[in-house]
């Protein structure tokens, strides 16, 4: 208020008067206005407690205001005053001083409130910027603008500091004089800028305020023109994360001193921590987006692997059906000619066999006859003396031959073969064996460059040829017994039927080819079993729906992903044909439950997807989902059994973040798995919680990687006993993970993640190393380890395992490997080489889970297998309603093992009834909870009685 208050009071007094007013608020702050030194001294005395006194020329008063402010007033009149005039003046002065102080306090509070509002608004803006989609540079530029609204900040920069690496990064720099341009990713070592005032601020760790010259003198920093010009006023505030300095914010003025004070320092320090929080949130969001993108890519790769596995399984099923059909034909075919033609049909279902013939060596061993031949160019093949044709080349070598035109020319040039008949573009011949002797050849050929056979076709035809040889031998024997009394008549009739059948087959193939061409377009966009649209057609319609929704923001649609619950149980119990029947019925019910414009597609297996277009929100999609589930839940008859199907259903609503139909399918699939895990027969809607679950899976993968580098994986051992006296003859090593937070985990808790990430092979080798160390300690009995098909695909598996045994000093004769049927047939030559190499060094092989994969019976005798482990599903079935079927399977396995001279082990023995059944069926060894649970302790010596 200056001296204006004192001057106003003096106007009411005679000329030459002195007036002084002093006050002190509750916080100890002083203020006042005065005109006259004597009056000022007296006012200070009154303020400090002196007693007030009044006379004709001196007027004094001291009092307290309502807000606790202490006020003193002293006036020396230039002429004597009457008592009434003095009292009136004093009362007027007190009211005037009180009113002025109240008004001043109100103005101060208003200014303080306005500053607080500006600061709060600035912090809100900084928080909003941190959560926005802006790039880092744009976000920091906007933050600069916010700080500029609070103080002078034309020259402003932000620096981040790594105290471990002792380095800086200028992530933002704005200056009207200094031309430096910030490079946020450029890391500057502190040693490169020793005279930097910014570096001194970071190491000092406290705010610095004042001219840059004075601050350099304070911190003993030499002047360095490379770091920019000096400032008249410089304010730097460090940013802290807990007790560590992690950066700083600096503002400066080149031409105006005293711009920044304690208020600006406190304000900038407060804002600095919020800016640091904004930067941390920005980095956390970028990291989360990166990890989600990585996991999404991993899931896509896993999905492609799964599709490849499905295709391979379908191929195996087709092969299995072909083998069963060949075995059936050898019994049911009326004649050999009919058998040949039907075998041709079977081969045609597996590979291109439009040109197909069977060649057999005659009984005298000098001629070659062709009992069956279908060819586009060579309508007949006459019997001939053994010569140097491609067929004779296969017979001499006893090996399959896959040759294109260039290789055939090479063999001819080398004098090894001589082409007979029309020139083939690609030729594939496989020998037919009987009692390890070549008796003929089965061959297919192509005359078109567009059709060529592959190594896979060669392996497939080789596998089929073995069964054809067996069937042919049975059929020939049967026909010779039936036709012994009329050989000549049957030979003429057989030849006539063969030609007629060949013509019929040729016409049939022509008609089939025409029908196949007509159905190509339909099959490309529809599921072969149900006739519903397939994945390709669904994705096309999804892309169209996305385009429409992007054009019209009010348009909504949803994708429903449906998976039948426990469908595998139907396949395993009543067969694949019944399963197909259930799939067709499920598709029909879904179509009847949806609206006419909705698209129902079968994606494969027991999975369906529904595109629900143009709906009024999530409620409509949920009501439709419940209608579908109710329709599917109605009972139906399949293979003579009443079945009560159910399904799990996931819903993904359209959102502008989706860029493709595959993303919508992916999220609907994830929601379906959420519904399945919640108990099946229900639906779930995809939400952000599911996205967070993907992040949790990433965390578990990180734990798995750390466990591999540490000692988190341990081997548990389960005893294998002789059933006659329950003495322990060996152990199976089982994998366990001792997780730092979740405790002991079994493989089912992490094996899927390990296989998806490819880490499970490293875990297996850690287990093998522990087993080798245990074997090196000595003892009796053997230890078996599980070897997955992944290891059998590695060419160096056997060498690596033997090298590990040698380095540990273990006895290889005490080690067994357990493999599955799939590992045997995945690559037969490689599997044979590995098993023979290991057996040559004393490591024997056991066939695990026998009877659950596709049949390997025809190849089993070729592999050096020491033992068959009967799958626990068959052992469990030995007691209860399924006993007859399980007894038949186990008896067949025992008979097969006895024929091959190998023993068997029953897995999963849990009670005495199962033990008695196994012993009755001739099984010598067993493994299961009845004899002992897996334990980390390894009992030595092994050969001991097991107590119950």
Q: What are the salient characteristics of this protein?
A:
948 residues, elongated, 8-stranded mixed β-barrel, disordered C terminus, alpha+beta, 6-stranded antiparallel sheet, single chain, 48% helix
| Count, helices | 28
Strand order of the largest sheet: 24-25-27-28-29-30-31-32
Give me the Rg, rounded: 46 Å
C-alpha termini separation: 101 Å
Helix content: 40-55%
3D architecture notes:
The protein is an alpha+beta fold and 948 residues long. Helix content is 48%, strand content 21%. The chain is built from 28 helices and 32 strands. Strands 24-25-27-28-29-30-31-32 form an eight-stranded mixed β-barrel, surrounded by four helices. It has a six-stranded antiparallel beta sheet with strand order 7-6-5-10-9-8, sandwiched between helices. A six-stranded antiparallel beta sheet has the order 13-12-11-16-15-14, sandwiched between helices. Helix 17 (661-677) links the parallel strand 22 (647-653) and strand 23. The radius of gyration is 46 Å and the shape is elongated. Residues 941-948 have low confidence and may be disordered.
Quick overview of this protein structure:
48% of the residues lie in helices and 21% in strands. The chain is of the alpha+beta class. A hairpin with a 4-residue loop joins strand 24 and strand 25 (727-739).
């Amino acid at each position: 208020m200056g001296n204006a208050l004192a001057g106003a009071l003096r106007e009411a007094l005679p000329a030459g008067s002195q007036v002084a007013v002093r006050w002190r608020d509750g916080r100890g702050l002083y203020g006042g206005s005065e005109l006259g030194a004597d009056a000022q001294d007296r006012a200070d005395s009154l303020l400090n407690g002196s007693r007030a006194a009044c006379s004709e020329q001196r007027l004094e008063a001291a009092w307290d205001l309502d807000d606790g402010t202490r006020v003193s007033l002293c006036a020396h009149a230039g002429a004597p005053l009457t008592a009434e005039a003095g009292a009136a003046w004093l009362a007027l002065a007190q009211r005037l001083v009180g009113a002025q102080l109240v008004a001043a306090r109100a103005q101060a509070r208003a200014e303080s409130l306005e500053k607080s509002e500006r600061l709060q608004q600035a912090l809100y803006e900084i928080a909003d910027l941190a959560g926005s989609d802006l790039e880092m540079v744009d976000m920091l530029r906007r933050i600069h603008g916010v700080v500029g609204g609070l103080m002078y900040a034309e020259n402003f920069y932000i620096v981040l500091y790594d105290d471990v690496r002792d380095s800086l990064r200028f992530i933002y720099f704005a200056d009207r004089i200094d031309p430096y341009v910030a490079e946020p990713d450029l890391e500057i070592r502190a040693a490169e800028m020793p005279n930097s005032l910014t570096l001194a601020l970071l190491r000092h760790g406290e705010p610095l305020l004042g001219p840059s010259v004075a601050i350099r003198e304070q911190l003993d920093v030499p002047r360095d023109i490379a770091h920019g010009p000096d400032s008249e006023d410089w304010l730097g505030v460090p940013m802290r994360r807990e007790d560590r300095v992690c950066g700083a914010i600096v503002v400066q003025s080149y031409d105006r001193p005293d711009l920044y004070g304690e208020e600006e320092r406190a304000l900038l320090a407060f804002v600095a921590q919020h800016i640091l929080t904004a930067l941390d949130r920005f980095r956390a969001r970028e990291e989360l987006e990166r990890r989600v993108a990585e996991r999404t890519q991993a899931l896509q790769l896993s999905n492609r692997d799964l599709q490849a596995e499905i295709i391979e399984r379908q191929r195996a099923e087709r092969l299995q059906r072909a083998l069963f059909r060949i075995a059936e034909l050898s019994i049911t075919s009326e004649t050999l000619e009919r058998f040949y033609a039907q075998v041709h049909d079977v081969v045609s279902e597996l590979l291109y066999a439009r040109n197909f013939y069977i060649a057999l060596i005659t009984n005298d061993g000098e001629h070659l006859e062709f009992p069956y031949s279908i060819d586009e160019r060579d309508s007949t093949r006459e019997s001939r003396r053994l010569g140097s044709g491609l067929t004779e080349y296969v017979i001499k070598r006893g090996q399959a031959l896959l040759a294109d035109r260039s290789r055939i020319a090479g063999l001819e040039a080398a004098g090894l073969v001589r082409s007979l008949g029309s020139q083939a573009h690609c030729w594939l011949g496989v020998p037919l064996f009987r009692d390890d002797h070549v008796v003929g050849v089965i061959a297919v050929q192509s005359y078109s460059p567009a059709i060529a056979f592959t190594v896979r076709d060669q392996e497939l035809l080789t596998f089929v040829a073995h069964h054809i040889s067996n069937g042919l031998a049975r059929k020939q024997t049967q026909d010779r017994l039936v036709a012994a009394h009329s050989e000549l008549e049957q030979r003429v009739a057989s030849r006539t039927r063969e030609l007629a059948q060949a013509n019929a087959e040729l016409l049939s193939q022509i008609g089939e080819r025409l029908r196949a061409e007509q159905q190509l377009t339909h099959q490309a966009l529809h599921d072969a079993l149900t006739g519903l649209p397939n994945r390709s057609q669904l994705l096309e319609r999804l892309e169209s729906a996305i385009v429409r929704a992007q054009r019209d923001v009010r348009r909504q649609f949803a994708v429903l992903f449906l998976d039948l619950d426990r469908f595998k149980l139907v396949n395993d119990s009543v067969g694949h044909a019944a399963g197909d029947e259930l799939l067709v019925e499920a598709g029909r019910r879904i179509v009847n439950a949806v609206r006419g414009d909705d698209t129902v597609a079968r994606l494969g297996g027991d999975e369906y997807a529904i595109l629900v277009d143009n709906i009024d929100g999530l409620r409509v999609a949920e009501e439709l989902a419940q209608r579908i589930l109710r329709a599917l839940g109605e009972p139906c008859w399949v293979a003579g059994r009443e079945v009560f199907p159910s399904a799990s259903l996931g819903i993904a609503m359209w959102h502008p973040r989706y860029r493709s139909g595959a993303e919508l399918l992916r999220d609907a699939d994830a929601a379906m798995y959420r519904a399945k895990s919640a108990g099946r027969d229900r639906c779930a809607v995809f939400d952000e919680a599911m996205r967070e679950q993907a992040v949790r899976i990433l965390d578990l993968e990180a734990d798995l990687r750390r466990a591999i580098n540490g000692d988190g994986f341990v081997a548990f051992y389960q005893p294998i006993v002789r059933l006659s006296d329950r003495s322990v003859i060996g152990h199976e090593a089982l994998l366990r993970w001792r997780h730092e937070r979740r405790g002991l985990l079994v493989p089912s808790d992490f094996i899927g993640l390990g296989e998806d990430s490819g880490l499970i092979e490293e875990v297996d080798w850690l287990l093998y190393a522990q087993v080798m160390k245990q074997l090196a300690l000595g003892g009796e009995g053997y230890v078996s380890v599980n070897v997955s098909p992944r290891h059998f695909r590695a060419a160096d598996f056997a060498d690596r395992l033997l090298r590990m045994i040698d380095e540990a000093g273990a006895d290889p004769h005490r080690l067994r490997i357990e493999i599955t049927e799939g590992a045997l047939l995945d690559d037969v030559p490689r599997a044979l080489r590995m098993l023979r190499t290991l057996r040559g060094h004393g490591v024997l092989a056991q066939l695990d889970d026998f009877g659950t994969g596709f049949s390997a019976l025809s190849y089993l005798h070729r592999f050096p297998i020491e033992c068959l482990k009967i799958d626990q599903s068959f052992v469990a079935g030995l007691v209860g309603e399924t006993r007859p079927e399980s007894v038949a399977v186990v008896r067949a396995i025992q008979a097969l093992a006895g024929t091959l001279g190998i023993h068997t082990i029953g897995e999963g023995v849990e009670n005495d009834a199962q033990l008695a059944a196994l012993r009755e069926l001739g099984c010598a060894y067993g493994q299961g909870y009845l004899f002992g649970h897996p334990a980390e302790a390894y009992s030595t010596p092994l050969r001991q009685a097991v107590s119950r």
